Amino acid sequence: MSEPFDIIAVITPKPGKADRVQELLETAAAAVKANEPGVLRYHVQRETKGDAPVFIMLETYKNKEALGVHGASPDFKALGRALKKEDLLAAPMKAYFTKEVGGYASKL
Amino acid sequence: MSEPFDIIAVITPKPGKADRVQELLETAAAAVKANEPGVLRYHVQRETKGDAPVFIMLETYKNKEALGVHGASPDFKALGRALKKEDLLAAPMKAYFTKEVGGYASKL
């Protein structure tokens, strides 16, 4: 079994499409929370500046299997289909596999 | 006094320069932790795939004043000078001001 790891994904909606993309991401996030115990973090961040905000997903997977389950889930596939069918993205999603190497997550 | 807000910054080192950039970011993060109580999160993430990994900073500021203090700090200025003097970056840092709009930060 692999170690937990993070994915940080940048999603770039077309101008005027951010609200619809947010709606889809919120639906996907609710399904992940309900159905995927191996996804330890699935946090939707929206850019607050500019008229074409990006979304940044902060995700943490318990192991590779959890990512496999996520990728195969009907909700994730529905998200992908809707983004494509409604032509909502200005660029392909950019995903970074990351690990923490310093600093601190919280002072609270 | 403004509300807490997040900044997610993507830092792109030149090939072969990631370790030096990480060193500088770790030094800066230690100073932030020690000297800047208004910075609630200053988390250094390194990309684990590819031979030219990017760094993604996950930062949370208590308010605008905290960002002002951060930007004016000698350590932040020293970081900027070193990145420039040693010509370590392949592209300018890309900073996104963000807010959470859905999903969850942790299941732990």
From TrEMBL, chains A, B:
Signal sequence bounds: none
One Pfam family linked to the record: ABM
Oxidoreductase among keywords: yes
Keywords: Monooxygenase, Oxidoreductase
Coiled coil: none
One of the record's GO molecular function terms: monooxygenase activity
Superkingdom in the source lineage: Eukaryota
UniProt xrefs under PROSITE patterns: ABM (PS51725)
Residue ranges occupied by any ABM domain in the UniProt entry: 5-97
Protein name, as recorded: Antibiotic biosynthesis monooxygenase-like protein
Source species of the chain: Melanomma pulvis-pyrius CBS 109.77
